[in-house]
Specification:
This protein is of the alpha+beta class and about 260 residues long. The protein has helices at about 5-10, 75-85, 100-110, 160-170, 195-200, 230-245, and strands at about 1-5, 20-25, 35, 40-45, 50-55, 60-65, 70, 110, 115, 120-125, 130, 140, 140-145, 150-155, 180-185, 205, 210, 220, 255. The protein folds into 3 domains: about 1-55, 2-Layer Sandwich (Uridine Diphospho-n-acetylenolpyruvylglucosamine Reductase, domain 2); about 60-170, Uridine Diphospho-n-acetylenolpyruvylglucosamine Reductase, domain 3 (2-Layer Sandwich), CATH 3.30.465.10; about 175-255, UDP-N-acetylenolpyruvoylglucosamine reductase, C-terminal domain (Uridine Diphospho-n-acetylenolpyruvylglucosamine Reductase, domain 1). The strands form 6 sheets. Strands 6-7-14-10-11 form a 5-stranded antiparallel β-sheet, with no helix packed on it. It has a 4-stranded mixed β-sheet with strand order 1-2-5-3.
């Protein structure tokens, strides 16, 4: 089934046009498609290189089997958080305010500080294969899985940590509001992207309705009807300024299609 999605409304950056998106109802390869999930860390052009696809509600579930937690790839982070809180399961406190769905979190090894989705991961299910964690190359905001993630299995530990939840919520207070995709750039080794952007004068810098937040320089905010081209221009400007000043090559955390 094909569904038309207006990315100026659907994506967290509120940038894009209306495009055809394949709704995936069953497990198959779909190797020529780009999975978009909830489009919370995506910047999608009007002419993406691959046709787009999204997992259907068939892959939105959470269940406990054989003392493991099994979660469908389309399951929203808020649903995961609420399930774990209600069932006194720990190690998922950090997903409470992270937007998106499970598949996207695993693709990016999403997290906050030392709390990452891979910490408690056992395996993932792709087309035909169950891949164990030890056979996945992963790191800071990265994993090498290019296939669709239909399901993931996690170890279960009981004892939901309300103190940790409080600490994480306080840490998020400095994150800016508005239409963004979260952190624009990955933190370079032993450095912070936000600090580098601020030091080259981009904190609060705006042009054509888009700019880097005056609260946290690593948040690219769509203030008013910005286009894909506007966003790319800002990203390229940031990369160039930081490299010229510090010799550091910033890597985008935003996924650009």
């Amino acid at each position: 089934m094909i569904k038309q999605i207006d990315f100026s409304k659907y994506s967290s950056l509120k940038i894009g046009t209306t495009l055809d998106v394949l709704i995936i109802n069953e497990i198959d390869k779909y190797e020529n498609y780009q999975i978009i999930g909830k489009a919370n860390n995506l910047l999608i052009s009007n002419t993406p290189k691959k046709p787009l696809a999204i997992l259907s509600k068939n892959f939105d579930y959470i269940k406990i089997e054989d003392n493991f937690l099994k979660i469908g790839g389309a399951t929203p982070t808020g649903k995961i958080f609420n399930f774990c809180k209600a069932n006194n399961i720990k190690n998922f406190e950090f997903v409470g305010k992270l937007p998106g769905c499970l598949g996207g979190m695993i693709k990016m090894n999403a997290g906050m500080k030392s709390y990452e989705i891979f910490n408690n991961l056992v395996s993932i299910k792709t087309y035909q294969n169950e891949i164990e964690k030890e056979n996945i190359d992963y790191g800071y905001r990265y994993c090498n899985i290019d296939e669709i993630i239909y399901e993931a299995t996690f170890n279960i530990e009981f004892g939901f940590d309300y103190q940790l939840l409080d600490e994480l919520e306080k840490m998020r207070l400095n994150q800016p509001k508005g239409h963004s995709a979260g952190s624009c750039f990955k933190n370079p080794p032993n450095n912070f992207a936000g600090r580098l952007l601020e030091n080259v004068g981009l904190k609060g810098y705006k042009i054509n309705g888009i700019g880097f937040s005056d609260i946290h320089a690593n948040f690219l905010i769509n203030y008013e009807n910005a286009t894909f081209e506007d966003a790319i221009s800002m990203i390229d400007l940031a990369k160039n300024r930081v490299f010229e000043e510090f010799g550091v090559k910033l890597q985008a955390e935003i996924q650009i299609f």
